[in-house]
Amino acid sequence: MDQPLSNLQENSQEALIAIHGVSCQVPAGWEVVGTYGGWRKGHLLVAAGREPRVSVSWRRHAAAPDLARTLHAAGSRLDRSHVAGTLMRQDELATNLLLGAWTGPQGDFHAAVRHFPAQEVTVVARQLAPGPSEPLRQLISSVQAVAARDGSRWAIYGLALDLPAWWRLEGLQQLAGLVRGVWFRYPQGRLRPDQVLVMRRLACASRLLQGRTLGAWVQGGLVRHERVVGDDEHQGLVHLSTELPSAHLWRRLIGRRDRREIYAWTQPAGDRLLVQEWRGATDPLPCLRDSQRSPRFKP
Amino acid sequence: MTNPRLQVDPDQLVPQLAHDVTSIPMPDGQVRLRGPRLARPLLLRWLAWLFRLPVVVEVELDDIGSFVIARFDGRTLGRIAEELAAHLQLTRREAEVALADFMRQLMQRRLAELAHMPSARGRSA
To answer: How is chain B split into domains, by residue range?
Structure first.
C-alpha cells in the first residue's frame, strides 16, 4: 500500500468508497449504484444522480499484468452503447499507472489502469460518459489497495468500518431505508468461515423506536430460545451478549450454544439506527462505532 | 448504458389518484383511500357476498403514505421525492426508490395513475 488509509487527506469535496480491499475518492455527489463480484475480482458502478460516471474494477493476481494491454482492453469495452474509437493518447502518470484517451463519435472517453505489486491488485477505472480526464486522473490517483493478509476499510452505502484481516464481504443489500452487509471471517484464508458479522443501517430511527429505548428495541428482536447473558448501555451504545442453541446440528446435540454479540447505536444526524451483530465462538469483534465517527467518512 | 426508451424521468411524471378513488381523511390525520367497486362475474360476486369479501378496494395509509398522497396536487414525482427525503432525512435515491415502490403498489390496486407533464407530452409528440 503506497499510503496507509489512516493518512488519507480529508477533503470535503470528495467522498470515500472502500470495498473488497480497494478504496478510492470520488467527487461529492457521486454515489455507488451497483457492486458486483467479490474480493478476488469485481467492479462497481458510480453515478452522479441518474448519470453514469465511472466503473471501477479490480482483480487480484500474483503475476504482474501487461498494463498497456490491460488499458487497451479496458478502452475497447468502455460502455455497451459506446462506439469504440481510436486510442489517441496513452500517458504514464506514475510507475504502474497508465491513462488512455479514446476519441469516438460521442466524444472523448478515458480509462486508467493501476497495478499495486505489493498487494497484487490491479485496478481499472473507466469513464462511462464522455468528458474531461481530470476526474478520472484524481480518482485513479486516490486508489489504494490492501493485500489479502491485511485489515481493510469498508465504506459504502453509509456503512463504514475497519475490519481486521481475513474478513470478506459475502453479501450487500441496499433497499429503501436499509443497508445490510454480511461479512465472514476466513482465518488465514481457510475455506470455512468461523465468524460472521452483520451490519445493518436503518433509516427513520425515531419511527422504528416509537418511544421505546434502544435496549428494549434490540431485546425485542432476539430470536426464540436466545438468552441474554450480559447487557450494557453506555453513552447511547447498547451492548447485548446472548447465547442461543447452535445452528449446527451436532453442536446442538452435544449441548453447545452459539454466542452472539449485538451492538446498537443511533446516528442523530441522519436519524439512522445501526446494528452490529457478531456471531462466532471466540475472539468477538469490538464495537465498530468509532469507524462510523471517522472524519474521513461522510454518509 | 440503459435503453433510452426505458428511462423514466420522475421530474416529468405527475402522480394523481385514479378518477373514481376517494380520499377519506381519518381523525388521526391519516388517509384512507376508497377505490371503485370491484368488477366481478356473477358467480364470484355471489361468492364474495357469501364470504363477506370487500366489494371495493379500500386501503388505509400510514402517516408516510398520507404525507405522499397529500402531495398529489400536480407536483411531480421528483419533487415529492425531494420533499419526502427532507421529511424523513433520507437520501434522494432512497426516497425515489421508496416512492417508486409505493406508487407501484397503488397502481397495482388501480388507486393511482401517472400522467406526463404537458410540456413533456408536447416535446415527445
So the answer is: 10-124
Smallest Cβ distance to A270: which of B89, B92, B97?
Answer: B89
User: Between chains, do B101 and A81 touch, taking CB under 8 Å as contact?
Assistant: no
For chain B, count helices (H), then strands (E): 5, 5
Retrieve residue A206's grid coordinates.
Answer: 425515531
Asked whether the whole model's pTM tops 0.95, one would answer no
A79: chain B residues, CB-CB within 8 Å: 1
Give counts: helices (H), strands (E), chain A. 6, 19
Q: Which three cell numbers stand for residue B20?
A: 373514481
Q: Under an 8 Å CB criterion, which residues of B touch A?
A: 1, 7, 88-95, 97-98, 101
Lookup: cell for A28: 461529492
CB contact under 8 A, A271 and B93: no
What is the complex's ipTM, to 2 decimals? 0.73
Residues of A within 8 A of B98 (CB-CB) are 176-177
Short-list B17, B32, B6, B13, CA closest to B75: B13
A44-63 residues touching B, CB cutoff 8 A? 49-50, 52
Domain residue extents for chain A: 5-145, 157-292
Distance CA A182, CA A172 (A): 6
For residues B88 and B65, is the Cβ–Cβ distance under 8 A? no
CATH of domain A5-145: 3.40.1000.10
Separation CA A57–CA A145 (nearest Å): 12
Residue A29 in contact with partner chain B when CB distance is under 8 A: no
Contact B88 A203 (CB under 8 A): yes
pLDDT in tens, B56-110: 888 999 989 999 999 999 999 999 999 999 999 898 888 998 999 999 999 988 8
CA nearest B72: which of B10, B15, B22, B30?
B15
Distance from CA of A173 to the nearest CA of B (A): 13
Burial class (CB in 10 A: 0-12, 13-18, 19+), B116: middle
Q: Please tell me the CATH superfamily of domain A157-292, with its number.
A: Mog1/PsbP, alpha/beta/alpha sandwich (3.40.1000.10)
Residues 6+ apart with CB under 8 A from B36: B18, B20, B21, B56, B57, B110
Among the partner residues A52, A80, A177, nearest to B98 by beta-carbon distance: A177
Q: CA of A20, closest CA in chain B: separation in Å?
A: 23
